[in-house]
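hi! just following up on the protien thing from before. the input was this:
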Amino acid sequence: MDGQLPLALSVGGATFLLGVIWGGPFVAIMHRFKLGKQIRAELMDSHHVDKIGTPTMGGIMIILPAIAVTLSLNISRIVEVGEGRSILLPIIVLIGFAMLGLIDDWEGIQTSRGNVGEGLSGRAKFAFQILLALSASTIISYFEFSFANSLELPLISVVIPLHPALFVAISTFIIVATSNATNLTDGLDGLAGIITASAFGAYGVIAFLQDQIFMVELCFVIVGACFAFLWYNAHPAQLFMGDTGSLALGATLGTVAVMTGQWLLLPVIAIVPVMEILSVLLQVASAKFSRRFYGVDIRPFRRTPIHHHFELGGWSETQIVQRFWLIGILSAFVGVALALL
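and the predicted 3d structure came back as:
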């Protein structure tokens, strides 16, 4: 066990180096086939003009190395010894949500070219998210993976049994909510990648404290892959994550949180995505409530998700990303500290 954490960190570093090496040709290929980003009309201003045409679906650059490295580390142990089978579930979640995001990204590109209609509707995408999350949650509950069907209270280290149906419902909500929250965070160069990497790093440490070494490896492999992606996504971005990456990483983060039993700490560790999704919900609720009862449109934010609020307030893109990253990494520290108490 003593040598497992250095191994996981080293593999994360190797994943970063491999990602940076193959990232250059990957970006060139994306440019070659003009798989570019189209900016929504309401965001079209001088600040966003330079982003038009930047390749999207960059989540592929994270997903493929993460899957390949994790399986190469564990496949022999899984097949020959039967150890580490639990790691297959978050990988399946990663693949499932990545495919959903890939379809959505591709349809968006085709729509921008005038080739198809509207692509995946919001309802269809949400329905598929629920189906995937429900399947993963049911598997966790049925096979009684670590901390399944229970609630672990931080600080007092008390584990409360939960009815399997309640656990599945909560787990499904966590996975879907984290997936969408991470998707909303993906709006500025480097923001989603660095916030996601910080959160996976925190859960990697938590998994290490629980002797879930296979989960530790997965978390730090994803951290390394995210850092490699950030090499090309740092401002000014050469590549965007797209739904391919953000939906998959968010869902996998939620799955990891559930499988470590420390899902109550997720709003702390992933405080930035939580702020992003809450800002959208509050904006919509406030507008609907005020129009219905007062006849006026009252919105607490200039624009949501909340990073756009600060953009319109005069903060530069790099200022927002750096300050949100400070909040994200400090909240990750706090989450790990609460898991230790």
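The chain has twelve helices and two strands.
The first helix runs from residue 4 to 32.
cheers
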